[in-house]
Amino acid sequence: MIEKLLLIALFVLNGSVIYAQNDQAEVQKAEISGQWRSFYLGTINKGGLKDFHGLATGGKLKYTHFIGSRLQLGAAYYTSINSGIQDLTLVDPATRRVSRYEAGLFDVQNLNDRFIGILGELYLQYSQSNHELTLGRMKIKSPLLNPQDGRMIPTLAQGIWYKYQPEKWKMQFGFFNQIAPRSTSGFFDIGESIGKYPVGRNTIGMRSLYENNTSSKFVAIANISLNPLKNMELEVWNYYVENTFNTIYIKPNLKIDHKTKISTEWLHQDRIGTGGNKVDSLRYFEDITSNILGVQVERKMGQSKWSVGYDHILKGGRFLFPREWGRESLFSFQKRERSEGTANNHALFISYERTFGTKNKLRSIISTGYQWKPSVTDAADNKYALPSYTHVNFDFFWIPERSKGLRPELLLTYKRGMGDYPDNSNFILNKVDMFQINFIVNYNF
How far is 251 from 257, CA to CA, in rounded Å? Predict the structure, then answer.
């Protein structure tokens, strides 16, 4: 209903441009912007396990209509086209499983679909002074619900979002009744959007059955960011998923000097209502509560930056947040893997970032992560049966001086299993002992 009303408004406003210009009553203008993206992703698995390859092209075309200085109407259409270099519907013979990563370039619900098209953004936005109010389909950037730019189609949300931002602090809150999970072709009700990605195991070791069985009508998000002390920043987020769970995320940052910053984080979750379903075997959020504690040290040195982060997911409850809704911005997060679905987990992350050149710039990020996980046979603490592992990423971004919109990226990933785990391909394929190539060409206009 919201998108129909906004489409009508877009048509009416666009048709009124000539009248408004002739009348000179108000200034109206329109902008067309977007991004063309081509994305190659290849995963080389251990030994005789199947290797996967995917190549997508597509992007985003956005139209923004401005009315005066306060009101704008925006619409953006997202696409992904499968070049067909490999049939991703074919399974690995040993595990009977399809691609994990490459499928995310396309429609994860229908790998036979060679084209995805979605009207991902359609909003009316009003701004005045320090206030901003947005209604419709939009991108939301937050630590847990966010576009997650590592695929072709980002995560998008439908609802209302308000932001108040004076000089020294910021407040945001919103209410959403639908979400378009990344790498899908449509918007879904909140409960229906949970489970579009692999569901893993429940706490007793059976396949989780919450897909299409989660009852939740809305997500309410609130945020406040302020400076309680001279050298201290405090960020607080709360996510209330009706009838399912509540998550609060608190992140204080302390600036030691202009080069060094120490940050901590605490994430606490509680089950709300029935956890998504009153039937235990169909429930999404099974545990009563979950907690994460973390610390991070960052230091800048000229064109370089070091970062060391540590997170511990405590015993007594798995950290759960729908993977479909974006990436987890924890101190231990590394591209191409998650901590979600785990309890009693320790993670250490070390990153070195450096920018080379003054005109044509090369930005490099080298990172190493260590994840010490519970046993793969411990379903209560390890939802996705992921072994402990070492994770190395080499991430390069080229920023040419003349082609302002061109942004190529090369990401190389290697994950190696650690510790003892059964010699079973289901614990290895697309999880550990794998090498991956991501080559992305973005052109923004």
Answer: 18
Distance of alpha carbon 429 from alpha carbon 94, whole angstroms = 9
Question: Which regions in the chain score pLDDT beneath 50?
Answer: 12-13, 15-26
Please state, in angstroms and rounded to a whole number, the distance separating the CA atoms of residues 340 and 328. 8
- Going from the C-alpha of 222 to that of each of 154, 240, 416, the distances in angstroms are 21, 9, 38
- The reported pLDDT for the residue numbered 20 is 40
List C-alpha distances in Å: 426 to 47, 51, 211, 336, 376. 13, 14, 21, 18, 10
CATH code, 2-444: 2.40.160.10
| Cβ partners under 8 Å of residue 212, min gap 6 | 192, 195
Within 10 A of 163 (CB to CB), how many other CB atoms are there? 16
Segment holding 329, helix H or strand E: none
What's the start-to-end Cα distance of the chain, in Å?
31
HSE toward the beta carbon, residue 321, CA cutoff 13 A = 28
Helices (H) and strands (E) in the chain, counts: 3, 19
Domain ranges (residues) in the chain: 2-444
In DSSP terms, which residues pair with 301 in a beta bridge? 304
Residue 14 confidence (pLDDT): 52
**What percent of the chain stands above pLDDT 70?**
94
What distance in Å separates the CA atoms of residue 397 and residue 362, rounded to the nearest whole number? 6
pLDDT at 22: 42
Which tens digits make up the pLDDT trace of 162-213? 999 998 999 999 999 999 999 999 999 999 999 999 999 999 999 999 999 9
Q: Are 302 and 352 in contact (CB under 8 A)?
A: no
Q: Give the burial string for 208-225 (b: 16+ CB within 10 Å, else e).
A: bbbbebbbbebbebebeb
Cut 0.90: pTM above it: yes
The CB density around residue 28, as the number of other CB atoms within 10 Å, is 18
Give the pLDDT confidence of 309-345 residue by residue, as tens digits: 999 999 999 999 999 999 999 999 999 999 999 999 9
